[in-house]
Amino acid sequence: MHEAKTKLSELVSRAQQGEEVIITSGRDRKPVARVVAVRSSNKRQRVPGLFRGMFSIGKDFNDPLPEEELRAWEDE
Residue 49 falls within a domain, yes or no? Predict the structure, then answer.
């Protein structure tokens, strides 16, 4: 914890670059906090159901692939 206090600017900088920083405390170094970057609020929010009715998924969507297509995916 003391080390995190003295290096807070560095830890925040690392979080801004995409790293997740875990802060620990005590002799057993128990994780007590996580430092991550806050998402920018200027990003457009996702709208649930925005494309509802614009496409459909076939009934066979979850069926196993044909053998020849499986081989193609497996690069055989």
Answer: no
- Measured in residues, the chain has a length of 76
Within a domain: 54: no
Is residue 74 in a domain? no
* Dist CA 69 CA 74 (whole Å): 9
**Positions of the chain with pLDDT under 50:** none
Domain carrying residue 24: 1-38
Q: Which bin fits 54, alpha (ψ -120 to 50), beta or left (φ > 0)?
A: alpha
Nearest 5°: CA angle at 34, between 33 and 36? Answer: 150
Q: What is the pTM for the complete model shown?
A: 0.47
Domain count along the chain:
1
